[in-house]
């Protein structure tokens, strides 16, 4: 880590005169005893529900990431190095080359790619450069390839009192000087977040394939630091989260001013490792997702293990309570994880193997249907890397790390295995009504969620009326037999209305 259809078979049914099954809209309204305004209530899905749209706008519903028509989505993907790093004149590959490689659809099959932007790009080149030259080409390329783009402001810095923390860190030996901290302590974190998202949020608010990752890794204060005014007051992990939430809520609100619908992925203090408090103390707002960063130094999901060198070990894990348990209540995406077995990483947080760490973590992540993930890093330099290259990195050619215990090949095969599983439960029954999909949400055999928005409202009555002649309805009368008389007709539309 550096900066670190089921349409069903046609069933014969006694219909009598088909003309008797064609009530007018006025007749529905009159018989139901409601006004047209009442009948039109509820969300009607449009193009976002189309089967041929691979990246419909995402939102959240409870613990799920969902499309506008209520289909549940599991994000699986990867991250390249920061786009500003890739854009350096000496870097051997272009952004386009890397993103096309990562989404080629033959060997690599992510449904989301993270797009990191480091703070140096903002300081040195400005936000016009960030938006127009780095992010816009990347977002458009991914949209053309049917892949979601997660714009990540790749900050690794204190979330309050940047200078006070910077001075304290230098004093304790984190770096030799303020210039060596990996962030600019002369720039206030609040000012930096405000500047970045005031430019990026409106620029990509209308891009339906985009998610925003607010802040890669808020670092300090944490329980074991004492810098600045806030440091001594933060004595528990809960204190960290509450201070972070109180600090970051204004940035969420800022984004929502310009991008009211775009999902926002939210990290947490201690390098995005305090996910467990998200369910108990959530942020205010809609379409919010919570991030987690997990490396072998965090241990295993359900076991306590010892890490470290002989004579200097510590017990770590299990980490399911920290990162898995909150997914029972809120959407969680692991926006960074990875490992490397090489000796040079033995003292690093990412030192691990496929058999001992990668495989159990894959099993754990896939056990949560609503937990997404993005592996780090689709690069030859920013560790842990998917690829090797000559020398110290930033070179060509890139060779996939295909040793059994490396992660490059493992992540590629994982994405291959799950390439058709973006939509959770998509192999369960649904009935195609054209621009809508009808679902049986409660398992009673009746498809009350006619417009597929994950609820039953007047909008479903409206959709059933307008699609009463659709093949999906006419070929599956039992699934729309809401009055229980053994056939589909006008009375079923009224019966569905009466259920509301």
Automatic annotation (TrEMBL):
InterPro entries: GH, Glyco_hydro_5, Glyco_hydro_5_CS, TAT_signal
SUPFAM superfamilies: (Trans)glycosidases
Chain residue ranges for the region called Disordered: 1-25, 308-327
Bias (Basic and acidic residues): 1-20
GO terms assigned for molecular function: hydrolase activity, hydrolyzing O-glycosyl compounds
Biological process, per Gene Ontology: polysaccharide catabolic process
Keywords per UniProt: Glycosidase, Hydrolase
Gene3D superfamilies per the UniProt record, alphabetical: Glycosidases
Protein name: Glycoside hydrolase family 5 protein
Organism: Natrinema salsiterrestre
Superkingdom of this protein's organism: Archaea
UniProt feature coiled coil, ranges: none
Ranges of residues in domain Glycoside hydrolase family: 68-379
């Amino acid at each position: 880590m550096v900066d670190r259809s089921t349409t069903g078979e046609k069933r014969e049914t006694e219909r009598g005169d088909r003309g008797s099954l064609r009530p007018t809209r006025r007749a529905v309204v009159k018989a139901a005893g409601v006004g047209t305004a009442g009948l039109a209530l509820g969300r009607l899905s449009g193009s976002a529900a189309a089967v041929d749209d691979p990246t419909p706008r995402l939102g959240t519903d409870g613990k799920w990431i969902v499309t506008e028509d209520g289909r549940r989505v599991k994000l699986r993907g990867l991250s390249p190095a920061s786009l500003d790093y890739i854009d350096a004149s000496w870097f051997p590959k272009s952004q386009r080359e890397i993103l096309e490689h990562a989404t080629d659809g033959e060997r690599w099959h992510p449904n989301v790619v993270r797009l990191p932007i480091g703070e140096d790009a903002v300081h040195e080149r400005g936000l016009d450069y960030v938006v127009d030259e780095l992010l816009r080409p990347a977002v458009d390329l991914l949209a053309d390839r049917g892949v979601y783009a997660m714009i990540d402001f790749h900050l690794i810095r204190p979330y309050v009192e940047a200078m006070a923390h910077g001075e304290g860190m230098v004093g304790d030996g984190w770096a030799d000087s303020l210039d060596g901290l990996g962030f600019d302590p002369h720039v206030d974190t609040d000012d930096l977040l405000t500047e970045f998202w005031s430019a990026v949020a409106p620029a990509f608010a209308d891009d339906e394939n985009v998610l925003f990752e607010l802040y890669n890794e808020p670092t300090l204060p944490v329980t074991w630091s004492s810098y600045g005014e806030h440091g001594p007051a933060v004595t528990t992990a809960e204190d960290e989260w509450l201070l972070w939430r109180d600090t970051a809520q204004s940035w969420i609100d800022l984004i929502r001013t310009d991008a009211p619908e775009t999902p926002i992925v939210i990290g947490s203090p201690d390098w995005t490792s305090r996910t467990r408090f998200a369910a108990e103390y959530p942020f205010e707002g809609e379409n919010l997702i919570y991030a987690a960063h997990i490396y072998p130094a965090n241990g295993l999901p359900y076991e306590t293990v010892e890490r470290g060198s002989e004579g200097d070990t510590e017990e770590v894990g299990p980490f399911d309570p920290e990162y898995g348990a909150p997914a029972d209540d809120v959407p969680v995406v692991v926006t960074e994880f990875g490992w490397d077995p090489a000796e040079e990483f033995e003292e690093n947080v990412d030192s691990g193997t496929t058999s001992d760490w990668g495989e159990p973590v894959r099993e754990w992540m896939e056990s949560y249907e609503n937990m997404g993930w993005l592996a780090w890093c689709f690069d030859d330099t920013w560790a842990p890397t998917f690829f090797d290259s000559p020398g110290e990195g930033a070179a060509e050619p890139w060779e996939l790390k295909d040793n059994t215990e490396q992660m490059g090949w493992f992540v590629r095969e994982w994405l291959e295995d799950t390439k058709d599983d973006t939509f959770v439960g998509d192999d369960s029954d649904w009935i195609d009504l054209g621009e809508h999909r009808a679902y049986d949400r409660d398992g009673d055999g009746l498809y009350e969620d006619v417009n597929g928005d994950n609820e039953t409202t007047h909008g479903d009555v409206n959709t059933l009326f307008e699609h009463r002649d659709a093949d999906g309805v006419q070929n599956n009368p039992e699934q729309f037999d809401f009055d229980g008389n053994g056939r589909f007709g006008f009375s079923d539309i009224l019966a569905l209305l009466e259920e509301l």
